[in-house]
Design brief:
Helices cover 39% and strands 5% of the residues. It is mainly alpha-helical and 118 residues long. The relative contact order is 0.21.
Length: 118
């Protein structure tokens, strides 16, 4: 969701990639549904595995909410933002909408702060 929001609100200004430490093979259908409700089509988006090179080559790393080094090496890199947002897996559609809205807010705040530095 964060990558989709970033692409929508800052499509030409920044390069964005979203990945996880143990992503599922396909996107959560409820995530696809709640994003479609607000006009964002994620059907063609695929989960990606987080790599060391992604972390090393990024100027900003965002942690969505994992808590230990084993499952989330990005926690232990310099200048990481921690949004503390729940995984939508096994959540109700209303909970996923709340997660979506929180991610949107965080992405908009991040874009604003990045633009202030440019």
């Amino acid at each position: 969701m964060a990558e989709a929001f970033f692409r929508k609100f800052a499509p030409d200004r920044f390069l964005v990639s979203s990945a996880g430490t143990s992503p599922s093979s396909q996107l959560n259908p409820i995530v696809i549904q709640v994003m479609k409700e607000i006009g964002i089509d994620m059907v063609d988006q695929k989960p990606k595995i987080l790599s060391d090179s992604m972390i090393k080559n990024s100027s900003k790393t965002v942690n969505m909410g994992c808590m230990d080094k084993e499952s989330c090496p990005s926690l232990f890199v310099k200048d990481v933002l921690d949004w503390n947002i729940s995984d939508p897996k096994e959540k109700s559609i209303d909970e996923v909408r709340e997660i979506r809205d929180k991610i949107k807010s965080e992405v908009l705040n991040l874009i604003k702060s990045l633009e202030e530095k440019v």
